[in-house]
Each structure stands twice: as structure tokens, then as C-alpha cells.
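During the second year of the project, the team shifted from modelling isolated chains to modelling whole assemblies. The rationale, set out in the original proposal, was that interfaces cannot be judged from single-chain predictions alone. As a representative example for this report, we include one of the complexes processed in the last quarter. Its constituent sequences, exactly as entered into the pipeline, are reproduced here:
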Amino acid sequence: MTARKTRDAAGRARRPGGASRPPAAGDDARIPVTILGATGAVGQRFVALLDRHPWFRVEALCASDRSAGRPYAEAARWYLDKPMPDWARGMTVRDCRPGGASRVAFSGLDAEVAGGIEEEFARQGMAVVSNARNHRLEDDVPLLVPEVNHEHLSLVAAQKRRFPGGGFIVTNPNCSTVGLVMALAPLHAKFEVTEVVTATLQAVSGAGYPGVASLDILGNVIPYIGGEEEKMEAESRKILGRPGAPAAFGVSAHCHRVPVADGHTVAISLRTRVRATPEQAIETLRAWRTPLTDFGLPSLPERPIEVRDEKDRPQPRHDALAGGGMSVSVGRVRRCPILGLKMVALVHNTIRGAAGVALLNAELLKAKGLL
Amino acid sequence: MTARKTRDAAGRARRPGGASRPPAAGDDARIPVTILGATGAVGQRFVALLDRHPWFRVEALCASDRSAGRPYAEAARWYLDKPMPDWARGMTVRDCRPGGASRVAFSGLDAEVAGGIEEEFARQGMAVVSNARNHRLEDDVPLLVPEVNHEHLSLVAAQKRRFPGGGFIVTNPNCSTVGLVMALAPLHAKFEVTEVVTATLQAVSGAGYPGVASLDILGNVIPYIGGEEEKMEAESRKILGRPGAPAAFGVSAHCHRVPVADGHTVAISLRTRVRATPEQAIETLRAWRTPLTDFGLPSLPERPIEVRDEKDRPQPRHDALAGGGMSVSVGRVRRCPILGLKMVALVHNTIRGAAGVALLNAELLKAKGLL
Amino acid sequence: MTARKTRDAAGRARRPGGASRPPAAGDDARIPVTILGATGAVGQRFVALLDRHPWFRVEALCASDRSAGRPYAEAARWYLDKPMPDWARGMTVRDCRPGGASRVAFSGLDAEVAGGIEEEFARQGMAVVSNARNHRLEDDVPLLVPEVNHEHLSLVAAQKRRFPGGGFIVTNPNCSTVGLVMALAPLHAKFEVTEVVTATLQAVSGAGYPGVASLDILGNVIPYIGGEEEKMEAESRKILGRPGAPAAFGVSAHCHRVPVADGHTVAISLRTRVRATPEQAIETLRAWRTPLTDFGLPSLPERPIEVRDEKDRPQPRHDALAGGGMSVSVGRVRRCPILGLKMVALVHNTIRGAAGVALLNAELLKAKGLL
Amino acid sequence: MTARKTRDAAGRARRPGGASRPPAAGDDARIPVTILGATGAVGQRFVALLDRHPWFRVEALCASDRSAGRPYAEAARWYLDKPMPDWARGMTVRDCRPGGASRVAFSGLDAEVAGGIEEEFARQGMAVVSNARNHRLEDDVPLLVPEVNHEHLSLVAAQKRRFPGGGFIVTNPNCSTVGLVMALAPLHAKFEVTEVVTATLQAVSGAGYPGVASLDILGNVIPYIGGEEEKMEAESRKILGRPGAPAAFGVSAHCHRVPVADGHTVAISLRTRVRATPEQAIETLRAWRTPLTDFGLPSLPERPIEVRDEKDRPQPRHDALAGGGMSVSVGRVRRCPILGLKMVALVHNTIRGAAGVALLNAELLKAKGLL
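Output from the structure prediction step:
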């Protein structure tokens, strides 16, 4: 359109003048960053979300040896709706070895290789902001949903032992866990959650690319996602606990893959120590404010939790992109005859549930002077 | 194919000689039956399942005034995969008034009109076998899943007060409830179920035809189905209780519509009074036998409950048609950290969950000499 | 997100200050407009596209008697991904009778009622910008794809006979026709198209809401869309001809409905009088410029035709929103062994193929001083 | 169900006594056969269609080295709806080397490896019945749709030069080509087809397993299938020509992948030398009889071409399994303003379009005494 502003993958509008361009060193005071696993599903989201980011500029795109040496436009089978940024197209993909000026490495690596590579980058003094599961449950590694538990960042101090050069690793949880803990956090803070039974209906993009075969999922449901139920149970306790002291509540998860492209639906029944009515729960969710609002983080949504009143919302199609994909929508808060409360949450699994929450983690690091 | 046998909608093979033909009065000792709401989604299933049924022949197809007087082939927008039986094509649709020789009325009527019409047929002395929700929870009306609670049939005796002419109404539960109670029944019998939290992923055919708009469900999930959660909670207690004394367990349901054509997936967490390991639960489900096997009911599947061992089954695509659509498949039986046990069940919602279970009810009536 | 700009349904960014607000008469020099059929699928797109439009403000939302008198938020079952604009939520829906200050009526009415209502509005002196099919083929009614045949606007002069008060009707074609004619127009201008065989794969949103039943289209193809093939054949000749003299080429269309939400794919084989190689065709499509660029029309995309080089594009998921949904993407231009050339085009059916092209028509009227 | 007959993947009913069992050498006079590529999508269909086949029994299941040595139940990721036959579950997968007693090798191999392996089996004296594309267009290899061009079998005589031991290779066409040529054959025989423009809407099972990634096709259309358009053009000419003399008509194909599991829709416009009205075409299609009916081939459908009268048929959901998946359904026969006639055909791509047509080829070989 004539004289129209463009938008990035998160639905954020950018300055019309800010044409998509290669991050030139000369005129750019932004922090150089590296993307590990840049050709994968999460890596592509990193590229899209970092397009014209006000604080960070992409200096290196790293991937497996198979991709290294090729232009990104060739090496990545781009699956996002919005086009690949022009500056990325021509960048030569590197292999996953530290080097260059980057101070942050965003990791969208597969768990098979993420562990060692991330440690190597941390050893070289870099801040590794990882979406991989490998280090999430280690004692000295923060597992962050920044609005919820940013104070867990203090754990990185203990990583000095492993990484004396000042590097460290911070992680974000599994995509379905992000939806669960964001919906639980305000209620846990006020009423203390003691038991959770949850069932998920997860989008195929959560399995990466190529991921789920179309023959397996067209018109079908797969009632199993390897390791997912265990992750939801362990990770949510760590996030909603204090550093070093996981929360004590129990979690039981039933995970399903459904024929939806983006957006995990999470049905939640919960018991709280302090009894709460649905009305009190709704009020608590609505009144909840993250302590992060003063940091001016560019990717922080106005309302990290969006409470919906309609009887049939949230839905992936309508609500996955709420807050540019960074808000978790919660609806149908009502009485559960067994556990006391029930509700349904929706999280955009590759934005808020993966690359977007990792980017928010990096913004938090910068705001707290850790970069 | 040459010299091949055909099969009906339930995947049952019929004699090759038994060509699809109009039920002629002369050469046919089968019981004449009427289908109410014959043009709707459940009505069409009745037509398909009754095609060449050994005990019943369709004498009348009844529907709303809009359809009455037209040939069935014109009045019904046929949505099933297998073709409309030839004998049905030319039958003239009647309005929903008693008459004719039928001794059974299968009701696939909408709840808006089912109540009064069904009573009228019962008042005229007919056995009304209904899939509608209207009378399900009435004290003198059996709510049957025959393999599970056929002894509830005794309730019909009390209907003499309402229908002195010998007519009566029997009902079957809501489609998702059928899946839930069949998976619970063996465990309830042995270990006594005390609490259930369930989440469903329900197929669009459960909403009838035209039902859910494609724009609402393509690539989407709708976390709400009007009245469904309440039905699952009330109906499963009635079925698993004794006649007149509902079971005491609590049920909490989360119902979702998903882009699947046929087959409801039901994720279940449950607590039992007598503690059971997953292994004991699996053994109990596998060892369970319905007391009905001696009745020779034509629609009774060999294994009403099919236990699956694969980690990612049951799935709608692979398992909805188990036992010709009459078996409920159960898998992933495992420990629930909150309630003790969890598992996933799959039920073909328009066969076992609607027209098929109603047909089984009618066969039971015949076998027990109630027709 | 903090300090983020919002975007409208067409993906266009709006000024951050320009919060969604009711169109107040006092501070607003924009032209007041009415939307007819405002609660339907196309009507909702009008509401979304007119949200903070620089030239027009919505004064009235009209719909059937069933909706009249109710707030729009209640009367419309909103199906678009982006939320209903706040100013629209509280507007009281009116019935479809002229009145008020509006100078333009956008019509998203069903063809069953559109004919008479549109004439009544024209008779009252209003410019009726219609997406309905009723008047499209009338001799004195322009059938416009503005970039292609804006000079057909001259036809409205002849409407003085019918509507002496200065009102008139302009129309846009059927959604699939828009895709076809935009892809053909540059080639017709240079090489003269003489024969076209086309097959469409059309999205469900083209059938309105509720439109296609999910049971009919999930995992299925319907090889028939009522009246569509005839429309494509007649309308494309009118558009690519001169006012009053339809083009002489023949068109044969095969129309299919597919399980896609938005975006019609149009496969095209064509013969031209002047023989053209695929390379010449590509160059011609790429070099084509609309004469409208100087009018500053707010909804005119930068590149009305987007030529793609990838072997497997355009695709609905990736390309429907090109140019904010206003660009037609064309790819796979290659030799056709029968007709000479073949290619595939993609059009967003409810934006460029319906409400968006109608809005562009209205902008053209304003730019040419006809409002 | 009690006392019910079972059915195989093609919907054919089998004797109730004929329980699924391993093909024992002793009591079994059937011809032993080998399946090459037995773990793949087409290989699985071979296994399903050969279950209790009256003429053939599976002696060996061969696949890549990765699978060799493992039980079939482990090596194959079974994707079909009906369960894997019991006799196949425990068979040890072999590598693809000739040996054993088999006289026929059914090949569902990938084209990357099929060429050499098939030749090796033919060299060892076996009849290779292949679904792979490698040898289809070779002069001495029959490319068969048996009902249409069984006389092309005479070509195998010339293979004596390559395979002096009496082995030979016969092939069937690409899945979409089968649908096209079966719909064209009766018209070509009577009116002589001279030009064809066709557009396909192809199911994902045609791409094998895992095949198309769900992220690529959910709610989407891919307007490109590698090599498919060329195959349709070349193969249909060979099939509808005389042995050694391809038919002279031109074919232009537009191929699309759509989110459908099974069933290719093929829209066809055609010109004939002898002009035919739609009514004449319908009559010709309906009157057409294959010369094969006297051979008693077990997989020959009663009506290889099923003509439909409804305005919106055939559809994958309703018609793919016509004739047990072996009939091609044709509908919407009407005038094409450009080429004279148009229509739409539907073919089950993995049954009639792949394993089923290959099986029919093998049955033909047996009936003609060539095994």
C-alpha cells in the first residue's frame, strides 16, 4: 500500500523509514547478537522478531554444517507468513562456533546438540538465551517467564563457577508450560496453587519443521507428545517456586497434538490452598500487573494476560496473536467440581512460547545491565 | 468388485445376495420401525445402520413438515460416506405423527421438538428409543449403555403410569458421555471411581448437520460446547449408579470442538476408592466382559472396550471405526500424579455415541421380550 | 506491546495516537458512509477496513430486521482475526433504509435482497459501492477492478436516467474473477487474450458466514460452486473489454471449494493472439503499472500484481496477505502445450476479492470528484 | 461384532472363517509373492490389499537395509486405518535381493532406488509389477491401466532381450494419470481426444510417508508437485496409444496439493476430433465396458468408471472408496466453451492410483498365463 507502515511477525508496526536493511556496523549502536539454529522453526522466528529490533542487531546466523557456507535465503526453508527480512537473505550461514562481536547468542537449537554448543558459547563469555530444554532444570540456570519470575535471574551468579569468563545461560520453558504458568502465576501468588490437572491441544508448529507429517494429523488428534507431560510438570514447579526451591504443587498433564498451525490451547483445573471463587480468580487475573513494566522492554505486551469474557474464547484463530503473539489469553474461568477452579488458556507457541519469550529474556538481561 | 460382499456404515459385511431393497411386508418377518428426525445427522446414521438389519425393517421415515411429503432422497442432504440405501431413496418422508405398524420409534430428533413428539409416540404404545437429551434424566427413563447398565431397563415398568398403553421411552447418553462411561465402567465396578476430571476433543459431526461452520473450525479449536460439560457430569453418574440411585462420584469436564470429522477423544484423570496401579487398571479393562454376550445382539461388538498398547493411540483416524464404530478404544493408561490414574478414550460419536448405541438398546429390548 | 502501533485487518499500520474511536461528527471532516449488510462476512470486512480510514468514517451499520435495533457487538457474530473496532461495538444496527448524512453506501448484502435495496439508496442520491452480483452485468453499471478498468466509471453518467437525484451504483466482480482478471489484464493489454481455461481452488470465506458446513469440507474438495463458473466467464469479459463492449475472448472455468480459510488459488491456461513466451509474459506482468498511482488512493497496494519466482508459490498461507491482502500474486508462468501460456494466481477473496476492492472503488470515486 | 465378516482395505468382505493368518506353505496353493519397499506408503497398501488374496500369498517383505532384519510390525510405521494383518506383523523384513520362491515382485520402491533393484529381480526371472516411475516410459515396458490397455502387455515379449531368464517388468502410471486416463479412455475410443487441459487437487498420501509436512499444507494449497505435470502429459499418451505408438493428443496439466488425506480430484477440459455433446459423453462413459470382465480378476471393480449425476460430485470424502477404492468416479460432464467438453474425475490415489492398479496388473498376468 502507498505510504503504509510495515509490521513484523509479531504484528508490531515499525517506522516507515526503517526499511529492512542489513545491520551495518558503522551506523548502529545496537548490541550484536548471534542466532544458533537459525534455519529451524524457532530460529526463523528469532530472525523475524529481531528484524529492526531497537536494541539488538543480528550479526551471525549459525546452523548445522549442512547449512554453513550457504546464503540464509537458500539454507532456510522459510515457513513464516511474513517474508524473510532482506538483510537476512544474503547473510552467509556459519557453523555453530563462537566468534565475532556478538554478546548474546539466541539458541533455537535442537536438544540433541544444544547442550554442548550452548556451554561452549557461555564459556567464551557470551550470554546464551536458550529455548532448548537441555539446561532448563539445572540448579544454577534460570528458567524464565520474565513477567512471572524475573528474580530467578539471580541464579546466573552461580554460573561463574562453570563459566569464569562471565558467560552464562538463561532459558525459557517449553511452549505449553509458558501458557500454563502465565495463567497460574497470578492465582498462585494470591491463593497458592496446590494441584493442577491440565489437558493441552497443541499446534503442529510446536513440533518444528518438517515436524508432524500431514498424513498423521489432517482431520486427526494424536494423544501423545514425547516428553511434554513431564516437562509441564517439572518446569512449572521450578518457575513458580523461589530460586532453588521449586513450588510444591502437583501437576498432571494430558498432551494432544491437533490440526492447528499456531496456538496451544491449555485446559486447566486447579486447587488452591486459599479457596477462591471464579469471580475472585477473574478479578485477580485481570488486576495482575507484572513488575517489569518500568523496564521499557520492547517486546513486553501491554497485557501479558488477556482475560476474555466470551463463553467460547480464547480460540487459536482469534487469540493466538493477541498482544502481537506475546499475550496469553485466559477464558472460561469457572468452578471445577473436583479441584475448585477451571479455565482455558491460549498461548502462541512459537512467539510467546518460544522465540518471543527468549527475546524478552534478552531484553531483561539488557535492562538489568547483564549484557 | 466382482462377487464381493458389501458392507454397511458400521463396516459390517452383509450377505452378497441381500441386495439393498425396500422392506416388503410380505416376505419380511422383521419388526417394523419408524425413524424420527430421519433427515438429520443421527437420523441418517439410523437409516444406514438399519440397512438390512436382521431384526428390524424401516417402515417409516419421519421428519419436519418442511420435509414431509418429499422422497427421502430429496429431503435428506446425505452426508455419510456410504451411499443412501436404495430402499430409502424413494420412501416418502412423513411428518412426526404416530401411525402405521411400527412397534419401535428411533428418535434422532432435535431437543427442541423431541420431548413432546416422543411422548406422543409412547402414549400410542410404541417403544421410543431416543438419542435426544430431553428425557434422559427423568427418574423412570432408563439412560442406557447396554453393556454397562442394561439392568436399568427395569425402570420402564414405572412408565406405565404415564403411558398406560404399554409404550415407553428408553434413552442413550450424549456422545462424549458414552466414551467416558464405557472407559470408567470396568474400573468403577472393581475399584469404585470417586473423582473424574476429563477433557474432550470432539468431532464436528457431533454437532449435527450443517452444525459447525467451516470458518469457525478449520485450523482452530473451540473450547466450548453448549450444555456438554453439564451433560457429561450428570449422565455419567446416572449410568454408573443403580436404578434410581446415581453414583456418588464427582465429574469435571472441559469440552472442546476440534477439526476432526468423526471420533471424540476423551482424556480422563480419575481417583478410585480402592487404589489401583496402571497395570491393574489395564488388566481390569482388558478382562472386562459385558453380561450381554449371550443375547446375540447383532450390533454388539466383540470387544466393547479395545485396550491399546501403543504410546500414541487411540486416534480418531485409526480407531474411530474399531468394532465397526461400536468399540470404545482406551490407551495410555498411566499414573496421574493428582488423582491416581489417567488414560485416553476414543468413541465414534455418531455410531457408538448416538445411532449405534440406540440400535443396541432396541436390540436389547427385543432380546428381553420388551417389544 | 508498549508504545506499539496497531494494525487493521489489511495489515496496515495506523498512527499510535489514532486510537480506535467512534467517528465524532465535530472533529471529523471525513465523508460519512453507510455499510449495508454490515453483520455479514463482507460487511465485517468493510467495518475492519474502514477502521480509521483517512477519507471515510462509518456513520451507519445496516442489516436485516433481525439485527436492527441491537448493538453491533451483539448482532454480528464476528469472525475476523482482529478484534471488532471499539467504535463499532456500541453502534446500533439500523435496517436497510436510506437516511442520515452518508454519501456512500458500501453494500455487502446478499444477492437475494441486494437488488432492490441498492436501487433505493441510489434513488436517494447516494453512491452505492456494491459487492453484490445483482447489478454487475447491467449496461450502465461499471464493473470495476480500478487498477484495470477505472475508465469504465464513465458508465455511471447513463445512470442519470434511472437515478435523477445523482445517485448511482458501481460494482466489483466476484472474488475469483478479481484474481483472474488482474493476472490477465497486463497480458491482454500487450498480447490480446483470446482463450482462457481456468480452475479455481476457493477458500471457504468466499461462501460467507456460516457458509460451508465443516462436515462438507474438512479433508474434502467440493467441485462445484453455484453460479461461479458463469460469473467468471461473463464478468471477466466485461472488465477487460471497453465500456459497453465486452472483450471477445472465451473463458472456461472449473470451480472447486477447498479447506482453506482465506485465499483463492486460480490456475490459468491462456491463448493470446500475439504469441508470447513465458519470459515475455513474466516481464510484462512485472513491468505493468496501473495508471492509478497518481491518485494517492489509500488502499492501493504498491504492487497490485506481485510476481513470484519460487517454483511452489503463490500459496494461500504465505501470499494471501501480500500488499495487505490487496495484491494478487502470480507465479509458475510457463508454457502451456495446449493454449500457449499457463500460470497460477492467488487473491485474498474477502479483501482484494470483495470489501477491499469495493473500498478502492469508493476511493477512486472520491479521487475523481464523484462523491 | 458377533458373527460378522471382516473387510480388507479395499472394503471387500472376506469369509468369516478366513481369519487373518500367516501364509503357510503346506495348505496354500497360492502364488508366492514378494513386496519391495514394503514399509513405505505404497508397500503398506500392498500388504493390506494382499491380505487373504485368493491368488497370491506374501512370501517376503523387503525394504531398505535400515529395516532389514526387524519384524515388520516394528519396521513399518503403519499409517493405514485398518490394522496391520497379523501374518505380516511377525515377518522379518529382508533386504531387496532376489531369492525364495516368489514368482512376482510388487514394487513400491522409491524412484531413487527402484530402477536397479527391479531390473535385478527381472534378471532373476521374476515378474516385476512396479508402481515406480523409473521404467514406465521405456519402449519394451507396458504402462498399464488394465481395463484400458491390457493389450500393451504384448510389449513384455521384447524384454526377453534384457531378461533372457523369462523375467520382465510391467508398470502402472502415476496416481493422477490413472484418474485422467480412465476418464478419457471411453471418450478417446469413441470420439478421439485431441487436446486436454487438466488441473488436479491431489491428496497428501500421494506424496508417501512422512511426505508433506503438516505446516506446509494445513489450511493451504501448494500449486506444485515435482515432475507430476510432465508425468501426466507423457504417461497418458503412452497408455491411450497403441503399443509403441503413443496417442497424438496434447496434455497440459496444473498440479496442486490440497489438505485431503486420500483421493485426487482431476478437473478436465478436452477437445475431441469427433464432436460430442455432454449427453453423448455421459452416455459413452456409462455404456463403457472393459474387455476384462471375463477374466474373473478378483480386484476388478464392477464399474471401473462410476458416473455421477449430482451437481457437486464426485468428492474425495464420498467417492474415493467407490468400488472399494478401485472405481474412478466422473461427474459434472458439461460443455467447455474452449475445448468442447469438461468434467471432473476422482481417483483413490493409493488404491486405484497405486497398489490397487498394480495388483490388478498382477492378476491380469496370472489370468493371461504369464506367471
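Chain A has a mean pLDDT of 92. The interface with chain D takes residues 41, 79, 204-205, 209-219, 259-261 of chain A (CB under 8 Å).
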